[in-house]
Amino acid sequence: MSILAGYRVLDCTIAMAGPFAAQRLGDLGADVIKIEPPAGEWQRHDSAGGARGNRVNVSFLSLNRNKRSLAIDLKKPEGRAVLLELVRSADVFCKTTGRAPSGSALTTRRFAPPIRASSVCRCRATARLVPTATGPGMICCCKR
After folding, report:
1. What backbone phi and psi angles, to 5 degrees, belong to 79?
2. What is the distance between the alpha carbons of residues 141 and 107, in angstroms, rounded to a whole number?
3. Number of domain units in the chain
4. Per-residue model confidence as pLDDT tens digits over 21-40
5. Does residue 78 have a pLDDT over 90?
6. Taking the model in full, what pTM does it have?
7. 103 — pLDDT class (breaks 50, 70, 90)
8. Per the domain annotation, does 2 fall within a domain?
9. Nearest 5°: phi and psi at 142?
10. Is 46 a member of any domain?
11. Among 82-86, 90-94, 119-123, which is the least confidently predicted range?
């Protein structure tokens, strides 16, 4: 039996730090559901390092193993409703911080209350590792 068996993780992250964190939870047995836009996360098709030649980017594949994937259009009310239902059933909600996609309303304030987070973990993907750092990063809200 895996240490995180029975835990559900909702992964709304992009780039490197967030997908890696959620992947590690999947490695430990959690049920990780990766949420992507209908066309797929950008890193599926375009690598951060510029590598070319594969239909699906190798870094995307390596950062998203042990995950199920679900395409949801968060710009539509129906898509946001589906995501909210998933958040209510999740033990961990991970999302990339910074500007949410235009019209998506993917904000931590909107989704943290339904899961009644007992702890919040932040990971900033910036060079400055100080509390005043700004820029994109990742946030996880957990319950149980």
Report:
1. -65, -45
2. 12
3. 1
4. 899 999 999 999 999 999 88
5. yes
6. 0.76
7. very low
8. no
9. -125, 150
10. yes
11. 119-123
**Which amino acid, residue 64?**
N
Structure tokens at 63: 């950062």
1 lies in some domain: no
Q: CA 96, CA 112: separation in Å to the nearest integer?
A: 14
Range of 132's domain?
A: 8-142
63 C-beta neighbours (distance < 10 Å), count: 23
Three-state SS for the chain is CCCCCCCEEEEECCCCHHHHHHHHHHHCCCEEEEEECCCCCHHHHCCCCCCCCCCCCHHHHHHCCCEEEEECCCCCHHHHHHHHHHHHHCCEEEEEECCCCCCCCCCHHHHHHHHCCCEEEEEECCCCCCCCCCCCEEEEEECC
Kindly list the strands in the beta sheet with 119-124, ordered across the sheet, starting from the edge strand earlier in the chain. 67-71, 31-36, 8-12, 92-97, 137-142, 119-124
pLDDT digits (tens, 9 = 90+) for 105-139: 555 455 544 555 555 566 655 544 445 555 555 55
Higher-pLDDT residue of 36, 46: 36
User: Does some domain include residue 111?
Assistant: yes
CATH number at residue 51: 3.40.50.10540
